[in-house]
Structure formats: C-alpha cells, structure tokens
C-alpha cells in the first residue's frame, strides 16, 4: 500500500484518501460509479480541507498582535502533508500540527485531526481542532468536497436539484474579489433548488448562519444525501462548464468586504481556550435509484 494513500470501504462504497491535505480522492459505489470530481483541468482538487481560514482575508494577510502574516485563500491545510494516526479497512485518521512553516503564516499552536470512515454505505468526515498552546486559538474550518455533476446513474446534467427540507428561500451572500459582499435571496419551491450553471456565474453561493443541517442532491436515477454537525455556514460552488458541484459545510466564511482587522476578532471565527477542542463532521450517502 503506498504510504501517501489509503483505500477503505464496505460492500457498497469504497473511498481513497491521501496524506497530502488529508484529502478524499475517490468515492466509488459497488457498481464502479465515481461520485467524486476527479480533479480535472477546470479545478485541480477533489475535496480539500479548509483551515485555518475559509475563503479569503483582505490582501491575503492575517493580522495578529499588530503583525502581518501571509495567508492565502482557504488556508494551508489543503496543501500540507498530514501524518497517519491509523489506517484500517473501514477508514483512517490523520493529523496536522503546527510547525515552523505554519507558524510563519499562522502564529498559533494547534492540532487538526481528520478522520474518514465508511459504514453502512455512507462516508463520514470528522475534523477535530485542538488547542495545545497556552493562549487562545482562533480559526475557521470547512469541507469542500466536489461531487460529480451529473451523478452516476443520471442520464445527463439536466434535472439535477438540491432539496432543503423546510426552507423556503436561501439568504445568500455573494463574493467580490473573494470577500463577502452583496446579499440576495434565492427562492425555492417546496424546499427545492433546480441546478444550472448560471447559478455560479457570480462565483460561490455563500449561506451564512444556515439553519439546515442536511440536504439532498438528486436527479432521476441517482441521489446523494448529505448531513453535517458543528458547522454553522454552508457554501455551494461550481465552475461554469465543469462537471462538479461543491457542497461545503463551513464554520466561518470569507471576510466581509471592508473588514481588515485582527484575526482574533475576525467575524465568524471560533476561538478555543487552551486545552479545548471542537469537533465538526459531515456525512454523505449515495444511492442509485429513481428520484
């Protein structure tokens, strides 16, 4: 088994994760259908872990104690090599800890554990942030999995939709230069949003303080149920012309346009006291069946 990847699963679902970024690389059903975007030229990633920021900071600069630190979009975890904690036939766990390189961009002690597991035909991802230092730890965190569009078993990209039970409209924010800007409402019919590429012509759809904790991504012939816990916000994104849809549970969003302050006071940041930890999880269950 290559040291940089691990494959695991059950009789219904098989996943592959790599040490670089603790990133999910593949999610296949028993029929061989690939549910995860395969990092094509339109976007060279699959399912990055966003930490210690989600989105952008003004000028790609994190300010702490009056000092600037370079911090690019979505943080450094997605480009960092994690250490394997354990691996078996049902899953794996990996860890990233602060080091000289991370402290240059993010001057805080931290540990980020990411656990992946398959059970009962569902995939789960659990991220735990720990503060081993002697001062407060501010951070944002998010998932960024890109799922196939069209889904395996669907005849085409037409007819795909998202359903959020009990929600009549999406109170969305849009981005300008990667920063949180204009508000808009996106109407739903019976909680359902028909999907088309034009939704993403203005970049991602950001849903701050999103009340839902589950959704259904579906088309005739296939569906994917997603649920999450610990995350307060959500993002939807696709690149027009590409065959993926990102379903992104977040805790925090891009910085608001016009804000440029200390990271400790960053809107939407979670702050852990020394010795504290916080857990975040999401799960998906793919099914090939009539919608």
From TrEMBL:
This is Aldose 1-epimerase family protein. Coiled coil: none annotated. CDD domains: Aldose_epim_lacX. InterPro entries: Aldose_1/G6P_1-epimerase, Gal_mutarotase_sf_dom, GH-type_carb-bd, LacX. Pfam families: Aldose_epim. It comes from the Bacteria.
């Amino acid at each position: 088994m290559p040291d940089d990847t691990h494959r695991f699963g059950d009789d219904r679902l098989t996943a592959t994760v790599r040490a670089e970024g603790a990133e999910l690389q593949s999610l296949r059903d028993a029929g061989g259908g690939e549910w995860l975007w395969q990092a094509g030229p339109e976007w060279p990633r699959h399912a990055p872990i966003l930490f210690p920021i989600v989105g952008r900071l003004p000028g790609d600069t994190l300010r702490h104690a009056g000092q600037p630190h370079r911090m690019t979009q979505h943080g450094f975890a997605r480009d960092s090599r994690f250490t394997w904690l354990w691996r078996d036939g049902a899953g794996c766990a990996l860890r990233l800890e602060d080091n000289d390189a991370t402290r240059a961009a993010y001057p805080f002690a931290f540990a980020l554990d990411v656990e992946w597991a398959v059970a009962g035909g569902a995939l789960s991802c659990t991220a735990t942030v720990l503060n081993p230092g002697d001062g407060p730890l501010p951070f944002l965190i998010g998932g960024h999995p890109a799922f196939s569009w069209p889904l395996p078993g669907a005849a085409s990209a037409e007819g795909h939709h998202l359903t959020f039970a009990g929600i009549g409209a999406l109170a969305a924010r849009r981005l300008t230069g990667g920063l949180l800007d204009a508000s808009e409402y996106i109407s739903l019919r019976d909680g359902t949003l028909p999907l088309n590429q034009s939704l993403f012509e203005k970049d991602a759809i950001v849903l701050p303080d999103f009340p839902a904790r589950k959704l259904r991504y579906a088309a005739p012939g296939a569906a994917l149920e997603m649920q999450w816990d610990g995350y307060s916000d959500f993002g939807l994104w696709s690149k027009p012309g590409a065959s993926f849809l990102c379903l992104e549970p977040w805790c925090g969003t891009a910085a608001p346009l016009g804000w440029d302050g200390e990271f400790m006071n960053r809107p939407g940041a979670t702050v852990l006291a020394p010795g504290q930890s916080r857990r975040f999880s999401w799960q998906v269950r793919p099914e090939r069946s009539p919608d």
